[in-house]
Amino acid sequence: MKLENLIFAAVFALAAAGGGFWIYGNANPIPVDPEDVKKADEEKDIITGPPISETGPWPTLRADELVYDFGRMEAGTEDNHVFTVHNDGEAPLVLKKGKVSCHCTHFEILHLTVPPGGSTPVHFAWHAEVGSGSDNFTETGVIMSNDPENSRIQLTLTGITATPYDLVPDYSWDFGVMAEGQSPQSLEGAIGSQLYDDFEVLRIESTAPEYLTAELTPLDTAHNYRSGYKIKATLNSNFPVGAFQGHIKFYINALDGATLSIHVIAQRQGPIRIIPTSGVSWIAGINLLRMGQFNAADGRKAGLVLVVTGLEEETHLAIEKVTSDLKLLELSLSPIGDTSSTVSSGGRRYMLNVNVPPGAPPMARQALKAVHVKIRTNHPTMPELKMRVEFVTI
């Protein structure tokens, strides 16, 4: 071969190996299609089977079965099946393992050479991954051979990944915002087993039975469970103003006394509703005011709008006393617009100003060190407001 041809071949090999897109020779650069490079790389991964004789005699591959159905498998467990491959031909059958469809499978041919009249087991295992829910699965494994009529066969495992017990919806149920005096609200779901026919709830417990209850009725056969119940959880709106958290515990026969639990959350609006003004950070569920970081010499003020109902027509909301673990914190209340507005217009509005005055010393009042504030009011059904205030002065 001429020297220039050797150089051209070497440059071509280097460009292909390095992902280059141009071939340089004595003339202009020749573009290389990236798809051609990708195809060449994929071809390297193709598993070739054993060589097949051109003249015979030949082996004859026969499998007792090509598909096996596991049925329902519990998520997180592993099962296996043994296929059997026979040689009904006149020459030794040479086998080679091809590709499997998933890393979750284990595929092994016990004997790679099978004499005429012989057979070999093929072990095929599959791991049902946790979190896959109730899903159909199909996994495959390929066997290559020197049988000219069956040089490639595919073995298949099928089944359903199922959970032994389950809650629908998942383990947190949100009743949202409930108004004062609102009728009890209910949410529905289901509890059951995709594996067992004898799933049973032995008893139910509520961590707040005076507000939160649950009842069960058997599920019909149309549901995705083999056995189970319909859940109806009911929450009364008379829980204390603010955030509500509770649990419903189900003691079931499949857990040896352990429980499945629903976390229930809700928020109750009282006669005094707090709305932050623009730019103010207020977390209603935990009554937390975040004032951020600011220069101690400048101080900072944050405004909260109080929407008030439940007062007599001639009575106006007033602050009677403020208790705080930070004496320099200042609070003041002033009406917004015409406070003669009635409940039908949404309630009377007042501005509650929370003020860290200029000249406060540097401090970090956050998280466990947040300022705790109690406000005693003249409201007949909500005489006390509680909040926490976070800020950092520098």
Could you explain the architecture of this structure?
With 394 residues, the protein is mainly beta. The protein folds into four domains: 3-44, no CATH class; 61-162, Immunoglobulins (Immunoglobulin-like, Sandwich), CATH 2.60.40.10; 166-269, Immunoglobulins (Immunoglobulin-like), CATH 2.60.40.10; 272-393, Immunoglobulins (Immunoglobulin-like, Sandwich), CATH 2.60.40. It has two helices and 29 strands. A hairpin with a 4-residue loop joins strand 21 (281-283) and strand 22. Mean pLDDT is 84; it is low at 1-30 and 40-45.
Fold blueprint:
Layout: H1 3-17, E1 22-23, E2 30-31, H2 34-44, E3 61-63, E4 67-74, E5 78-87, E6 93-100, E7 105-109, E8 113-114, E9 119-127, E10 135-145, E11 152-162, E12 166-168, E13 172-179, E14 185-193, E15 201-206, E16 212-218, E17 227-235, E18 242-252, E19 259-269, E20 272-276, E21 281-283, E22 288-294, E23 300-308, E24 319-324, E25 330-335, E26 348-356, E27 363-365, E28 371-377, E29 384-393
Parallel strand pairs: 4-11, 13-19, 22-29
Antiparallel strand pairs: 1-2, 3-5, 5-9, 6-8, 6-10, 7-9, 10-11, 12-14, 14-17, 15-18, 16-17, 18-19, 20-23, 21-22, 23-26, 24-28, 25-26, 27-29, 28-29
